[in-house]
Design brief:
alpha/beta; Peroxisomal Thiolase, Chain A, domain 1; 2 domains; five-stranded mixed β-sheet; four-stranded mixed β-sheet; 13 strands; globular; binds coenzyme A
């Protein structure tokens, strides 16, 4: 029986840091409000000339180095992002060219917002198991600062820019790597978190620009409630499906959106908060990038050891959600 393992991980965040105090100079907010309502203290913001693909390339190079794999060996490249360089071509094609991934590789983007990295993991896992591909590179990269209304205090305090990547390959050893995943979506809730214009439903026009329709819109309270509910559901289901108990999970890496969401999830699951990897205080919500950045940091901090079970759990616009169980 073969398995698909994560052979390497890497992450990158832009150098510029935007603190809560900096934001308080832009909108009517305060460090106290942002920390108490979200747990976020600062976030990294990409340079004007730094696009999603530029960040993707940097974290991908780190992941390839970590895996000891050359770009030429990658035959499947997936970028999960809701802030692509262009609507077309895909950001994956830009990354492919800049990284030196060979032309025969399959390269595409996926759109599952903050659950994007888990969706990409599932796709790569399935494709590697079939034997059709040998080595996959999956990236979550976001320049959310490009779709944020910096005059809207209800959203601009929550998000940041960054990227994380993983290299996946098949090994002839049963019971390790990606053990399973449980993904879902509920399109009925698509307008809780969306960007109204810029797509085919509402192409760019002077009117859409005047209406600020090219910025993210969110109903924060509703998103919060659904986030806690669906993440608890998929976390429990994943553990039960694999005949484990929550107690056996050594580390949970949740999507980093709000500390209060993670606290509610921990409490509902009956797990101590120490069992969760949390770095949203430093990065805010980087959408598809939060989980691979956290995974990279957790590994480097020695929080993941051989034999450990790690549970990744996410939710995002769509509303999409999912959990992935990994054994190291
Ligand atoms: N600074 C100061 N006050 C702010 C503020 C800010 N940045 N943003 C909102 N407020 C105000 C509101 O206007 C409101 O004022 P009012 O009572 O006079 O109307 C008050 O603070 C409370 O706002 P509310 O929306 O009830 O706060 P909340 O406790 O629900 O927290 C969020 C708001 C957005 C932090 C929270 O709902 C959340 O995190 N939701 C999930 C969002 C998310 O995760 N999105 C990403 C999904 S991938």
């Amino acid at each position: 029986m073969a398995s698909v393992i994560i052979a390497g991980v890497g992450s990158y965040v832009p150098t510029k840091i935007l603190t809560n105090e900096d934001l308080a100079k832009l909108v009517d907010t305060s460090d106290e409000w942002i920390v108490s309502r979200s747990g976020i203290k600062e976030r990294h913001i990409a340079a004007d000339d730094e696009a999603t693909s530029d960040m993707a390339i940097k974290c991908a190079q780190a992941a390839l180095l970590d895996a000891g794999i050359k770009a030429e060996e990658i035959d499947l490249l997936i970028v999960a992002t809701c802030t692509p360089d262009y609507l077309l071509p895909s950001t994956a094609c830009v990354v492919q060219h800049q990284l030196g991934v060979l032309p025969h590789a399959t390269c595409f983007d996926i759109s599952a917002a903050c659950s994007g990295f888990l969706y990409a993991l599932e796709i790569a896992y399935g494709q590697l198991l079939t034997g059709r591909y040998k080595c996959a590179l999956i990236v979550g990269s976001e320049k959310l600062s490009s779709i944020i209304d910096w005059s809207d205090r209800t959203t601009c305090v929550l998000f940041g820019d960054g990227a994380g990547a993983a290299v996946l390959k098949k090994v002839d050893q049963p019971g390790i790597g990606i053990i399973g995943s449980d993904l879902g979506a509920d399109g009925a809730m698509r307008e809780l978190l969306y960007m109204p214009a810029g797509g085919s439903r509402c192409p760019a026009s002077p009117q859409t620009i005047a209406n600020k329709d090219h910025f993210l819109r969110m109903k924060g309270k509703e998103v919060f409630k659904h986030a806690v509910r669906v993440m608890e559901k998929v976390a429990r289901e994943m553990v039960e499906q694999h005949h484990l108990t929550l107690d056996q999970i050594n580390l949970v890496i949740p999507h980093q959106a709000n500390i209060r969401i993670i606290e509610a999830l921990a409490s509902n699951l009956g797990l101590p908060l120490e069992r969760f990897y949390i770095n949203l205080d430093r990065y805010g919500n980087t959408s598809a990038a939060t989980i691979p950045i956290a995974l990279d940091e957790a590994r480097r901090a020695g929080k993941i050891k051989p034999g450990d079970y790690t549970l990744l759990v996410a939710f995002g616009a769509g509303l999409t959600y999912g959990s992935t169980l990994i054994r190291w």
